[in-house]
Amino acid sequence: MALFSLILLFAALQARASEATPRPLEPDDETGDRLTAEAPMNFNDGSRYHLYRVELAANQVARFDVTGGLNSYLSLFAPDGTLLQHEKNGQSDTALHSYHAHLSQKIEREGSYLLAVGGNSPRSLGQYTVSVKTTELQSIAPLVPGVTIKDWLRGLDAKHTLHVDKIGQYRIRFGSDDFSAYLLVDHGSHYEAIDSGDDTDAHLDVFLRAPGDYELIIRSSDESWQEGLYTLGVEALSCC
């Protein structure tokens, strides 16, 4: 029943998209507005929403955030109208703090994307600010000291090969705004691991006893399937 209601919600948004003129939203910018009872209505649950159109390039990650007094949800649609993501919280309108929706999406192709900013219920109205931040994906294989990459996790984990030419102490920095990141370093005979927790810039210092290749594994702390942007970098601290 819940799945059927969600399908109706998306269908209602798409059907109303032709009636509501999308407002422009520029990459790496923000805009403020107020959601009122005069905004377009989602016929599935009576909530109100605004539509935004944003032009995005391929091979980057777009992160959308809503702040302010609105208990909000976000839905992102591809240029062909396909729903890419829907982020909604079941928090009550009487809760002490509003729920601020956010979502990140890897952009596979250039085009005009549609973002719906809506209230969690018919009573969810108010002032809000919506922003979009874009990040270019940067990856290198193998990873070497002095380099930091920005990559996208889709699945249970992401694996990278680290190559070092010298024995020594190295610092591996990692983190994510989209999930609680967990790092494992494969030494061949054993693993070293650290949980970033809420830290978006955590690090692990390791002593690598021989030149060569080492496997670095990024996953979420709870070992669940995830989608999200993360950073991973290595620097040499000392060598022998």
Annotation keywords:
240 residues, mainly beta, 5-stranded mixed sheet, 4-stranded antiparallel sheet, 1 helix, 53% strand, elongated, disordered N terminus
Which whole number gives the mean pLDDT?
87
Report low-confidence residues grouped into runs of 5 or more: 1-6, 15-19, 91-96
Q: Give the helix/strand class.
A: mainly beta
Q: Write down the oligomeric state.
A: single chain
C-alpha termini separation: 63 Å
Q: Figure out the total of helices.
A: 1
**Could you say which overall geometry the principal axes of the C-alpha atoms support?**
elongated
What order do the SSEs take from the amino end to the carboxyl end, as H and E? HEEEEEEEEEEEEEEEEE
Strand order of the largest sheet: 1-3-8-5-6
Helix amount, in percent? under 10%
Q: Tell me about the largest β-sheet.
A: 5 strands, mixed
How big a fraction of the residues is strand?
over 45%
Q: Based on DSSP secondary structure assignment, what is the total number of beta strands?
A: 17
Radius of gyration: 21 Å
Show the helix and strand layout.
Layout: H1 2-17, E1 23-24, E2 29-35, E3 49-56, E4 60-68, E5 72-77, E6 83-87, E7 102-107, E8 111-119, E9 126-136, E10 148-155, E11 157-164, E12 168-175, E13 181-186, E14 191-195, E15 202-208, E16 212-220, E17 226-239
Parallel strand pairs: 1-3
Antiparallel strand pairs: 2-9, 3-8, 4-7, 4-9, 5-6, 5-8, 10-17, 11-16, 12-15, 12-17, 13-14, 13-16
Short account of what is shown:
This protein is mostly beta strands.
